[in-house]
């Protein structure tokens, strides 16, 4: 289905806001503040994961899960888990040893609000809590489904996924990478976790292989479109719009598709990938309209 035939934007905004409400309620419940000595750690964890954000990954989990009639509370738990994992990556990414950014979502980064050591520990604890939530019986009655969720997230987040991509990103600063090399870097660093979020909804729903593969392909192309458009925003948006320091990738000499294609061609490539993502949803008919709307939002957003 073409991008211009999806539901009107306000339907997507309303659905994303409802998802954010449900997932943040889960995050609040899953990260209670204790009256014990580690309270500062929990406060830093909560600051990192409850400090706003589009909840795009959680929305993917819950909207895909809805295609397979998954219980909303179970889906919200998995959405909360992926948001914890994502928040951990942002906390560590902002550290002086990584991208050294003082702003995140318009607020001081975790290491600026607290301190570097606390931020590192908060990121570590968010990562482990994410897996803990997936392994708990409340997430799914079927232990096989829980194991699949844990394994899929480990693959998306580890050395062959997000962390591996971050390493390549750091190593590539100031170097001239080919388009294929940048595509692989971005698929690992950003795309794999977005693809996991979509796949997780299908795992929760015990989707048949063909439908699970279609969802994974949607998530893959959506993740690629998202990162390329992030590169576009880094060049064109203000710090106020992005909620973080703008123009840092170009200043650091990072490898991006904008750098090798230019703004217009990079934007066009992101739009093409969003169209491809929509095409993978044909078998789901109108039930996947919000997922198609999300693809369009990915390449038209302001932050």
Q: Give the CA-based shape.
A: globular
Write down the CATH topology: Farnesyl Diphosphate Synthase
Rounded average pLDDT: 93
Helix/strand order, N-terminal first:
HHHHEEHHHHHHHHHHH
Q: Determine the N-to-C terminus distance.
A: 25 Å
Strands in their spatial order, largest beta sheet:
1-2
InterPro entries: Isoprenoid_synthase_dom_sf, Polyprenyl_synt, Polyprenyl_synt_CS, Prenyl_diphosphate_synthase
Protein name: Geranylgeranyl pyrophosphate synthase
GO biological process, one term: terpenoid biosynthetic process
Pfam family, one: polyprenyl_synt
Q: If you had to describe this structure to a student in words, what would you say it looks like?
A:
Mean pLDDT is 93; it is low at 1-7. The chain has 15 helices and two strands. By secondary structure, it is mainly alpha-helical. Helix content is 69%, strand content 1%. A hairpin with a 2-residue loop joins strand 1 (103-104) and strand 2. It has a single domain (3-298), classed as Farnesyl Diphosphate Synthase (Orthogonal Bundle), CATH 1.10.600. The protein has helices at 9-30, 39-49, 56-67, 72-93, 110-113, 116-135, 143-157, 162-171, 179-204, 209-236, 239-242, 248-251, 257-261, 263-279, 289-298, and strands at 103-104, 107-108.
Q: Helix and strand layout, with pairings?
A:
Elements: H1 9-30, H2 39-49, H3 56-67, H4 72-93, E1 103-104, E2 107-108, H5 110-113, H6 116-135, H7 143-157, H8 162-171, H9 179-204, H10 209-236, H11 239-242, H12 248-251, H13 257-261, H14 263-279, H15 289-298
